[in-house]
Amino acid sequence: MLYRSLAKPVLFRMDAEKAHHLIINGLSKGARFPGMASLLGQLYGTVPSPKLEVKLWDIEFPNPIGLAAGLDKNGQAVPGFSAIGFGFMEVGTVTPKPQTGNDRPRLFRLPEDLALINRMGFNNVGADQMAVNLRQTGRRTIPVAVNIGKNKTTSNEEAEQDYRECLRKLYPFGDFFVVNISSPNTPDLRKLQHGEELKRLLEAVMEERDRQSGQDARPKPVLVKIAPDISDQDLEYIMDTILASPISGIIATNTTIRRDGLGHPNASETGGLSGKPLTARSTDVIKAIYRLTRGRIPIIGCGGIFNAQDAYDKIRAGANLVEVYTSLIYEGPGLIKRLNAGLLELLERDGCSHISEAVGADVLE
Questions:
Q1: What is the pLDDT of residues 318-343, one digit of tens each?
Q2: Domain residues for 89?
């Protein structure tokens, strides 16, 4: 309530990107003060429950609610986000070289639609500085994934070198990695989801992962993040390609370029749409992936999760974990506690003793 009544009205009078930076800088600097992380935990932290603990890829997730990539682009606020109850988080998208991204304005709110449109363009400090930032986070309390991409000036033919470089520089600092080939804001990036380009890229990425892991008996997981704007035929091909590779999992989905049913004037802005309008579409994609893969590969569901039922729908569609971003902007840091508490109620209602029992339940019916 504190966020909705005090902070949100102030932030929503500001330019969306300025508000974004204010939140990140506040969490980054605030969490460094003695006792501040503990205070954030008391205010917003989630009460641990064995029913919500998830183990995937030999990684322990205290709960299934994660922070999607794009909010903490440079890995500046890991302790702060950890303190407010997330079960894991992504940082990035990071590219090998720093880049400023697209021209401003490039982030737009659509309050009537509970949505955002962004055309940020992978603005980030680059892999070297990201490594410094993650090294400085100290001991972590939740798993941290590093979302990696290619620089805007890198052609698709040379893209694999950018993904390799990100893995080389950041491998020691991520618990797992996400290959972002689905942002609509980098020219031609989504073409990497198709045909031989996808196969070649995944082979290169996994070869680099294996090289970096050395003699490690458990190489770090690598996931692929896909778009919601793909045909059934393309999705089937992507899944066949992923299943034929050592890829560890899928994140479904990124933002959409569709604008169906929006009421806000900002709907005409170009970029990727996130938030409530994506809820049903992302859940449908998760369900299709689970059906195509027969549950053989873990899925992280993302897109339009504003309440526990939204999260539960994605889990029952086949997601093992879920992520939020836009809803955090609209609902504030109390969202994570509410989502986890609501999931516990839904599990009890359905007679489930653990969250894993709900995974794919709607597909199996």
A1: 999 999 999 999 999 999 999 999 99
A2: 2-364
Phi/psi for 124 (5° steps) reads -165, 170
| Positive or negative: CA dihedral 70, 194, 244, 253 | positive
Tens digit of pLDDT for each residue in 212-271?
Answer: 998 676 899 999 999 999 899 989 999 999 999 999 999 999 999 999 999 899 999 999
Find the length of the chain. 365
| Catalytic residue annotation | 183
Q: What angle do CA 33, 138, 163 make, to 5 degrees?
A: 125
- Tell me what percent of the chain is helix, strand and coil, each rounded to the nearest 5: 45, 15, 40
Q: Return the CATH number at 239.
A: 3.20.20.70
Could you identify the residue written with the tokens 């992962």? Answer: 209
Domain count, the chain: 1
* Alpha helix ranges (H) inside the chain: 2, 8-11, 16-30, 36-44, 78-83, 127-135, 159-170, 195-213, 232-243, 279-293, 308-317, 326-331, 335-349, 361-364
As given in the structure block, the two tokens for residue 178 are 């996400």
State both tokens at 198.
Answer: 């996808």
Angstrom distance (rounded) from CA 52 to CA 300: 15
Cis link prior to 95 (omega < 30° from 0)? no
pTM over the 0.90 mark: yes
ω into 105 cis (within 30 of 0)? yes
